[in-house]
Amino acid sequence: MRSCILLILIPLLLWGCAGASEVLVGQTGANYSQIQAAIDGSMPGDTIRVQSGVYKENVNINKPLNLIGVDSGNGRPLVNAGGSGSVITIAASNTTVQGFNITGSGGCGCGHSGIKVLSSNNLIMNNIIYKNKYGIYIEAAGANNTFVSNDLINNSITISDSGKNTSWDAGTRSGGLRGILDMISGPRVMGNHYSDYDEVGEGCNDTNNDLICDKPKVIGSSLDSYPSISATN
Questions:
Q1: Considering the chain, what is the average pLDDT of its residues?
Q2: pLDDT in tens, 135-185
Q3: pLDDT tens digits, 65-113
Q4: 98, 76 Cβ separation under 8 angstroms
Q5: CB-CB contact of 132 with 181 (8 Å)
Q6: 162 in a domain, yes or no?
Q7: Residue 186 burial by Cβ neighbours in a 10 Å radius (0-12, 13-18, 19+)
Q8: To the nearest 5 percent, what fractions of the chain are helix, strand and coil?
Q9: CA distance 93 to 113
Q10: Are 99 and 127 in contact (CB under 8 A)?
């Protein structure tokens, strides 16, 4: 069911971007072999599709884009920063990041993370974010960002959220990206999975066996009302 939701969601998010181009990143037969090179060569509003493979780089999204990982036969693409800086930095608003394995940030408590958000109105969906200093780090300038159906696994610090109005699930009816999710699948879609909040000893009980923790996960001043007890991808 989730795959169907994603297939419907992407065209809706891109609808109205007349003139936007699609760029392919991959090992062979693609426009680019590296993600950052594709970003640098793209125009605002373009969609960059990244095929299976390992991409050893730090990615800085400095213009509004749709960055989509595609399983082209060998699993979702892996972005590995090799222990330096943040893996993916979202500096431009109105960006989508979906479908990646994300690992290998630097170890600095200054914000080195799997995904670092410096901007607003972004959708981060269906990623596996693991073994970073911070899984997700949102600076104060970030507002109205939506995170749904991501797996945050074995990061030193799962999340630091200093932004405003962050949505950690698709469970409340509202406008914008959240509203699109609600129209497709109703008010209760999915939150995220957190490896530090998926067991009884961590406060996650599932008394009705719906694979959702009975109590929300508190994230700063926000809540994920539907945290999953298992991997969401």
A1: 87
A2: 999 999 999 999 999 999 999 999 999 999 999 987 643 444 545 555 554
A3: 999 999 999 999 999 999 999 999 999 999 999 999 999 999 999 999 9
A4: no
A5: no
A6: yes
A7: exposed
A8: 15, 30, 55
A9: 18
A10: yes
Q: Specify if 14 maps to a domain.
A: no
Residue 191, classed as helix, strand or coil, is: coil
**Rounded-to-integer distance, Cα 21 and Cα 42, Å:** 8
CA-to-CA distance for 162 and 164, rounded, in angstroms?
A: 7
- C-alpha angle 150/84/232, rounded to 5°? 10
In a domain, 231, yes or no: no
To which H or E segment does residue 12 belong? helix 2-14
- Give dist(CA 142, CA 222) in Å, integer: 13
pTM of the model: 0.86
Q: What ranges in 115-232 are assigned the alpha helix state H?
A: 176-185
The pair of structure tokens assigned to 188 is 């209760």
Residue type, 149: S
The single-letter code of the amino acid at 180 is: I
Round to whole Å and give the CA distance between 222 and 160. Answer: 11
What is the DSSP code (8-state) at residue 202? Answer: G
16 domain-assigned: no
Burial track 203-229 (b if 16+ CB lie within 10 A, e otherwise)? ebeeeeeeebbeebbebeebbbbbbbb
Q: Could you give the number of structural domains in the chain?
A: 1
Cα 155 to Cα 86: distance, rounded to the nearest angstrom: 13
Residues of the domain holding 200? 2-8+21-224
